[in-house]
Amino acid sequence: MFSSIFTSEAFAEAWTIIKTQFPLALWETFYVTVLATAFAIIIGLPLGVLLVVGEKGGIKPMPKALMAVINFIINILRSVPFLILMILVFPLTRVIIGTTVGTVASIVPLVIAAFPFVARLVESCLREVNPNLIEMAQSTGATPFQIICKVMIPESVPSLISNFTVAITTILGYSAMSGIIGGGGLGKIAINYGYYRYKYLVMFLAVILLIILVQIFQSVGTKLAIKTDKRLKNQTVKKRS
Amino acid sequence: MAVFSGRYFFMIEIQNLSKTFKTADGDLEALKHIDLSIADGDIFGIIGMSGAGKSTLVRCINMLERPTEGTVCVDGVDLGQLSQKELRAQRRDITMIFQAFNLLMQRTCLKNVMFPLELLGMNRTEAKKKALELLEIVGLQDKAKAYPAQLSGGQQQRVAIARALTTNPKVLLCDEATSALDPNTTNSILELIKDINKRLGITVVVITHQMSVVESICKHVAILDMGEVVEQGTVEEVFSHPKSTAAKNLVFPEGEEGSFVVGNEGEHFIRVVYNGAYAAGKPMIARLAIEKGIEANISYASTKGISGKAFGTILLSISGDENTVKEAIAYLTTEPGIEAEEVEVNVQ
Prior knowledge:
The complex is a heterodimer of chains A (241) and B (348).
Chain A: H1 8-53, H2 64-79, H3 82-88, H4 90-97, H5 107-127, H6 131-139, H7 144-155, H8 157-177, H9 186-196, H10 200-228, H11 235-240
Helix pairs in contact in A: 1-5, 1-8, 1-9, 1-10, 2-5, 3-5, 5-8, 6-7, 8-10, 9-10
Chain B: E1 3-4, E2 7-8, E3 10-23, E4 26-39, E5 43-47, H1 54-61, E6 69-74, E7 77-78, H2 84-90, E8 94-97, H3 109-120, H4 124-137, H5 153-165, E9 171-175, H6 183-200, E10 203-208, H7 211-217, E11 220-225, E12 228-234, H8 235-240, H9 245-251, E13 267-277, H10 284-292, E14 296-306, E15 309-319, H11 322-332, E16 338-343
Parallel strand pairs in B: 5-10, 5-11, 8-9, 9-10
Antiparallel strand pairs in B: 1-2, 3-4, 3-6, 6-7, 11-12, 13-15, 13-16, 14-15
């Protein structure tokens, strides 16, 4: 079935599509991913904090029922396949954006799918914070809010950055899927031209671009995580040499 | 309660303090009816083996652990009666340093020292000035911009001490503060704590399992065993005459005096107790041989120098009759601060 890929007509055709479609698609994929990740963090970060501080024995225990409900909702959202979730949130998307199709509309299901994931990532990061530091802050007279803002979050910045990097690459993958509901981007091109119209060369190129995007996000994230990690002793050594 | 010049003479008063933890295996009594009074300006040691309840006790002094029973008063304020908010304010007066230093690893040393002031909402320039002053007191002004990971353990503990002093506390709690440090660093940190106690008049509570720490800086000591205070008093008193088994185990970690000494037929044993004698310069045993012609064999000895005086026990074995023994005892006891008596030892 791939025999027609490498003919010169196929190349010429693919080149036209790339020239006309790819710049916009790349931009759409980029901004959808970044915006969806940003919103997912805005909702997921406080939720992740709540999961840690609100539990029994946490620094600000919350009613058991509330914690159970939050955990339940997160687990449900985490278990629905993204393809199904996209369709299930149509009513919500219509309320927020006014329409259910299009690139902007695809941000809503992405955020809904990603924030519970981000909340769990934040939760695991904050659990890694040395409990002795929290005890130190308490013995210094810090309020629970001060402990969250001045100890728990700042101390886990490097691991939060690594985990947000995981989140952004996952969301990038999801955003490609949103081509199905009319979301723009590289995913749409791969599906529309490559899958529906058998232009496999275009499909491959779209996938390669997605891979490059993931690589860029990942290496920037990793560099940032290392740079912000002040626990690494060799930092001064590096500077001196 | 004795009141001196308007200030409570006892900075910390613990009365009938008990703490019980509920565990899966039933209740665990970590502390049982503790009574302790710690004078203002004192350096008070609380010593005990691991699991004796030391850490729980020190956490009851700043209410990180709520006591199950009993009261803790610091500078006349009953901490058990305070609301969370009042308690947080009170904790600025009762600061703490830890075994693991507990510095914020993502902050520079300066920012670590500024942390308690930041919690108070103090203006940045003012806080920075104060923090730099304190870093100078602990001798680390040049490390202000360094991160804790770039410092040695001793330096990290100095930063932690500077941080503990920013709020001008009345009490400094040291929870195994030198247990993670090597002997030299331990000494320098202890010197620093001693100096702070002297210069700023802060009452210091030292929690440790190391005898040497108590000996070198504490004035008073309490021995904690299985959640109970089994002995307390001045360091000299407790360490020269340990009464309880726990105290004896700490003072003589190699086993109770003479318990392993086995005598021969016809041998007599004399226990010589050094109770603060300035004996270091006087070779008592040699003099005994030269002046009295009594040859004594040292079967067991454990002595310590505490602030220039000798404390401890020597077990001498002497071959001879009753008179020789009496003569030896009479000679030894002429020296002030030395007690001697004949003791029975298991005969082979």
